[in-house]
Amino acid sequence: DIIDEVPMTTSSQISGLSWDKDGDYLAILQDGNGVVPLWSLQSRKTIPLETNLRDPTFIAWSKTGSQLAVGTAKGNLLIYNKMTKKKFPIVGKHGKKISCGAWTAVGNKLVLGSEDKTLTISSETGDTLIHTELKHHPLETYFSNNLGSEMRVGGARPGTEDDTVSANLGGKSLLLFNIMDESQDPMELTFASREKNGPCKYGQLTHHQWYDEGLLMIGFSEGWIIVVSTKPNEIGEEKHSGKFHARDLITFAYNAYLKRVATAGEDGVRLLSTVDFKEIRSDYIPSTDLEDGRVSHVTWSPDGQILTIGTESGNVYNFLAKMAALNAYYKSTIAYLSSLREVSVMDSIRRTRPVDITLKIEPTVLALGARHIAAGMNNRVYYHRITTTGQNNVVNEQEYLGTVRKIILNQSFAAVLTDAKVMIHPIEQSAESQKKTRTFPGREEGSYAKVTSIALTDDFLYYGTEAGTVEIFNIAEWVVLSAAELRLSGGTSVRQIHPNASGTRIVIVDSSNNTYLFNPVGGGGVNKAITRFEECPSVVQSVLWDVGQSHVVTVFDGKMLHTYTYAPYSVKGPLLLKLGPVEIAEDGSVALIANACDMPSASIPVISVDGVITCQTASGSLNSFVHPFFDQLAPPGPNTPKPRGAKDESTSLRIKFGQALGLLLLEVAWQAALELNQTQYWLALSGKAMELLNIDLACRVYRQLGDAGMVMALQDCASVEDKLLLAGHISLLFSDYLHAQEFFLASSKPSRALEMHRDLLHWDEALALSQSLATEQVPEICTKYGQQLEFQERVDDALKMFTSAVNAQDAEGNYLCSEELSVVASAGVARCSLRLGNVRQGIRLATEINDKKLYEECGDILDGQKLHSDAAALFLKAEKYEKAATMYTRHLIVSDMGRITEAAGIMDRVNNDQIHTSFAKACEKSRRYEEAARAYARAKDIDEVVRIKLNHLDQVAEAFELTREACSTASATRVAEFCEKDRNFRGAIEFYLMANKQEVAFKLAQSENLVEIYTSVQGDHISVEDARKVAAYYEKMNDYGKAGKFYSLCGQYPRALKLYLQCGDKEIDGAIEVVGKSQNENLTHQLIDFLVGEKDGVPKDPNYIYRLYMALRKYEDAAKTALIIARQEQDMGNYGLAHAVIVETIRQLEDEGIKVSLQLRTHFVLLHSYTLVKRLVKTGDHAGAARMLLRVAQNVSKFPQHVVPILTSTVIECQRAGLKASSYEYAVMLMRPEHRSKFEDPNLKRKIEAIVRRKSSNTEDVQEDTSPCPISGESIPMSALECPTTRDALPMCVVTGRHMVAHDWCFCPVSRFPALYSEYVKYIQAILAPKEESKDSGDALQSPRSAKKVQALDPVTGKPVQLSELKKISGDEALKYIQKYNNVKEDKKEEAEDGGNEENDGNSSPPKRLNGKGPSKGNMMNGM
User: Fold this and answer.
1) CA distance 3 to 318
2) 571 to each of 486, 525, 534, 726, 749, how far by Cα in Å?
3) Any idea what the Cα angle at residue 307 is, between residues 306 and 313, rounded to 5°?
4) Average pLDDT of every residue of the chain
5) How much is the average pLDDT of 709-728?
6) Per-residue pLDDT at 1315 exceeds 80
7) How many angstroms separate the CA atoms of 1108 and 1100, rounded?
C-alpha cells in the first residue's frame, strides 16, 4: 500500500534516493536541481537543502554517521552534517563527473567513482585517503559492508573495517579489490556470453549489491538477476539466477530484514524472496500505480518497513512493506493491529475468537480499556467502543496540542502523554467531561514539569518526570497523593512505569536502566517501600505483571525474559527474587539459580497469565508459550500450550515442587511435598513458610516433621496480625536477634525488642533500648547489668552500672531509682571499691571523710595491693609528697612511662635531690627529655641539663644561654665542641672563649674566616694582645676599616687613623672615634685636613666636623658648627634642611646630656614657626598663622631668599586674623623701593597698596588670647615665649607654636620635643578623622590612592606618630625641663661664656674652612 507520495517541486527525473541511518530523512536527487529535498518521515514534510551546486549527480547518506555526501558533474563534493547543520564543500575531488559512491558500514569512509576513470576513498570530512585509477569509468561502487568473514577477495584476514570495494566498470564487468592491501591484485568478474567474444548473455550490468555471507546480487539490462559467490573456494560461482522482467531491468534494492528484493523494470516493480529466489506476485506494483511513470530508482528504509520508488517523471512514492507491531492489553484482554486499519481484540484466558474493530486511521499508538479502543496518529486520537459486530463505533475524537506519545485507558478515563504533559479525561464526552479533565504536572519547575512516562489503573494515574519523581493521582478523589510521591536519587529521570492491576505495586525504570519496585501501601515511609531489582538486565524494553499470579513480574530486555517474585513481608524484609532453576539439597537447603529464559525470535511479549506468555510476532499475529519456570504448574487445557519437554512423574513432581517454591506458591508446593513425602522437601517447605510468615502452613509442615516444640511456639504466634511483629517473633525463633530487633522496633509493639534483650540477658542492647522505650526500667537494668559485670570480674564496668542506677533520672530531673533498689545499687558500689580492687568508690568514701591519716593509710594499703597509682593519689591528699614521688619513680613510671607528666606536677614540692635525679633518669630513659632537663635542674646538675638540651631536645639556644649564665667550663667546652661538630663555628668560637680556650677559638676563627665573630664575642674587653692579632689579620686581608678598629682597641691610634683614612669616606666615623679616643692634636689636624679636602681636594660633609667636635668633647664648637650649617642652608632658602640640622643637633646634645644653647633653641623656634604656618592656614587657624608669621617677620632678614613672600603672607594673614595694625605695618614695609619691585602678582601688589592708602582709624590689633605662664603662672599671650617675671625663655609647643602650659604638657614620642597634650591629640584626631568618616560612609568607589593608609606625622621630624604613645607629664617634670631648657643649673662662668657666644651671634669661625654648596659657605670656617 502507498503510505505517502512525496510532493516534488519539479518534474525532473529522480536520479537518486537515500535514507539516513535512523530512517528519519529521505534525501532525493533530481536532474538539474541544485536543491536536495530532505523528506521527514515523522512530519511528512520536505526540507530543502540548498547545496549551491548547479548539477549534482550523486547523493548518499552515511550508514553510521550524520553526513550526507553530494557529488557534482564537475567532480566537486559537498558533505552536509544534519546534526550540526553545516556544509563542507570539497572542490576538485575528481576531474570529471562523480557518477557513483557509497559509505562503509564500519569506519564511516566514503568511496566515490568518477568518469575520469578513478576511485577515491575519503574520510567523513572529505579528506582523500586512497586514489585508484581504473580502465573504465565506474557506474556503481559499493563496500562489502563486512557481511561475512569469508567474503574478502583471496581470503584476506577479517578486520574491523570494510576493506573490499566492488565497482561496475562500464556495465561490462565487476572489479573487486582490497583497499587495505596494495600487494593483493584486484579481481575482475565477467559473465558468460552467448557466443565467443560476444556480449554477456544477460545484457549490460545495471546494478549490483552485496548481501549475506560473501554473496553478490547482480542485475542485468535484459531483466536477469543472478547471485554470485565471492568466497575463496567458490568465487564466481552462480548460486541463483532468474529473469524477472521481460526487458530493461533498471535497478533493484535488497531488504535484509524481510529477505526480499525489489526489482524495477519497464513493467513496474516486482518483489522476490531471497529464501527461494521466487517472485511474490501478490506484491507486484504495476507502472499504472506510479502514474505510468518509468521507475528510475528504488531503495528501502533502514528498518526495512518502507520501499521508496522514484520515477523519471519526478514522482516519489513510499510503500509500506512491513506493518508495525502494535498491541495493547487491559487486564487479560489483548488488542493488536491485524491490518493497517483493523484491530483485533481477544481474551487471553478464554482464547475466544477475536473481535475485529475497523479504524478510521492507520495508527501509530494503540490503547485498550474495559470497553474502548484508542487509536492515534500524530496529535489525533479516535476512541472506539468495542462491539461484537466490529463496526466503526467512534465515541470520541480528540485532537491534542502535541504529538501523542502514549495512550492508556481504564473503564472510563483516558490518559494521554503528549510531549512533556499528560492529560486525563473521560473517554466518552458528556456535560461533566470538562470538569473531569486535568493536565499534569500543574507546576512549572524545570525538570519537574516534564513528564517522561505514564501509567493508568482503574483507580490511579501515575506519571514520572524528568526530575526522577513519580506522582500518583487518585481518580475517585480527583487529588494528587502528595504523601505517596516517590523521588529517585542520582539525578535520573523516570523512563517507564508499570503498575500491577490494582496499582498497589509499581515497577519503575529510570533513565540509567535501574529498575525498582515501589510498594506504596507497605508503610515505613517512601524509602522503606522501594526495592531495587538485583541482576536486572541493563536494557528494559517492557515489564509484565502476571495476571494470574499478581506477585510475579517479568522484565523483557529485547531478547530474554527475566522473571521475579515479590513478597512484601518476610523475615528478611521485602523480598524480590529473580527466578531460575531450584535445587533442593539433602538437608533441605534451597538453592535458587537466577536465570533468564529465551523469547521466540522476532516476538514481543504482550501479556502473562499464570505463566502463559502471549506475544506478537513480526507478522503481527499472536503466539503463546508456557514460561519454562511455570511449565509444570500450568493447568492442562485445550488452550494451554504444551510444556517444552515431557518428563517422568517423579521428576515432574520434584520440578513442580521447586517451581512452586521459587514462585512462592506454597500451597502447590505442599501438595507436591505430600506426594513426594521426603524429609528434604518438608524441611525446604518449612524454611520457606517461616521465611514468608505463613504460620498455618509452617505448623502443618512441622507436624509432618514431628517437631512438637516448634509447633507449640508457632501456635503462640498464630494470633499475631501485625506482620512486622510476626516477623520479629519468627526471627527470634531462628536466633536472628538483629533482624528480630529491627522488626519489633518497626512493629506496633516496639517494647518487645526490649523484652527480648532482657530475657536473653543482652544488657547492653536492653539498656540502649530502655533509654527511648521505657526509662523507668533503666535503674533495674543497670543494677542487674552491674551484678552480671561484677560476677564476670569486670569491676570497672560494674561500678559504672551501679553508679548509673543510683543517678538515673527522667526528663524532668526526678530520680528513678526506688529506695529498695538504691540500697542494692549502693551495696554494689561498696563491693566495687577498695575490697574488690576498684578504688574509685573507696576514694570517694575517703574524700567524704577527708582525713589525712586515712589517706596515708589507704595509700599504704593500696601500695601493698600493688595499686601504686591510687596509692600515690592518696599520698598526695595526705601531703606526703616524697612518698607519692617514690611511688612514681619506683613503680608507676617504671611500668608506664606515660605517667611521667603526672609525676612532674609534684616534683616541685620534693626536696630530695636523689629522687629528682632518679626522676630525671627515668624521664631520659623514656625520652621525655624536657622533663628530664627540668629534673636535673632541680637536682642542681647544670652540666646534665646542658647535655640534655644539646643532645636530645635540640634546644641549642637555651643550652647556650644556660652555659652563659652558669659560666661552667665543662659546659662551655661541651657546647663549643657541639657547635664545631654542627659546623656552627660562630657558637664554637664564643664558647671556646668562655672556656678560656682563646688559642683554639682564634685558630678556628681564622680557618673559617669568622674573625669578626671572634671579636664580637670579646667585644671591648678584648685583650691588647688579641686585638693586635686581630688587627694584623684584617690588615693582611686588606680590610683596613676593621684593622683600624682593632689597632684602636690596642692603643695604636696613629696606625688606626692611617688605615681608616685609606678607606676614604667609608670609615670617617671610625677615624673620628679614634681621634676622639686619642685626644692627640696631631691626629686631630690630620683628620681635619682630610675632612676639608686638603689631601684630595674634595671637602667632606660639614656634619663630620660637627661630629669630630663631639668626639673631642668640644660641644660648644660642635653646636656652633651645626648653627653655621643651618644658617648657610637657611640663607639659600633650604629651610627644611636647616630645620632638620637644628633639630638633629638639639636631640644629640640632649641625648649626651650636654646643654643646648639658647641660640640653638631660638633658631629652632624661628624655623619651626615658619614650618607651622602652612598647616595652621590649612586647618583654618588664621590667628595662629598670623602670630607665627609675625614672629618670623620680625627676623625676616634671616630669610633673605623669601622676604617679599613672607611679608606678603604676614599682611594677608594679619588681615584675616583682625590684626589691622600689624597688617598695615608690614604693608608699609612691602611698599619700600627694595621690596616693591619684587612683586610677581600685580593684583596682589594692588591689594597691598590699597591697605597702605586706606589706613583705617582703628589701627589696633585684636587682643591675643592668654594662657598661664608655666614658670610664674601669670596670664600671658599664647605666642609669648618669655616669662614676664623671670625673663626666662619658655619652651614652644611644636604643634601650635604657643608657649607650653604646665598642666597640659607632653613630649612628642618621636622627636622628644615638648607639645601641648590637648593640641597634639586634636592634631592627630583631625588627620585620622577623614579616614574614620570614609569607613562609616562605606564608599565602595574610593580610588586606590584615597584608600591608602592615613597616618599622623610628627610636626618636627615628619615620622609617623600614634595617639596611644602620647603621655601627659606632671608639673614637676615640666618645671625640670624648663630649668634644663634655660640651663639654670650651669655655673655663672658657663652663663658668661654663653652670653659671650650670644654676643658673637654665631659669627665666630671654626679653626678650618668648610666648603659648601652656597656662595656664603666659603668663609664658614674662617678663623679656625
Assistant:
1) 6
2) 25, 19, 19, 9, 17
3) 130
4) 82
5) 85
6) yes
7) 12
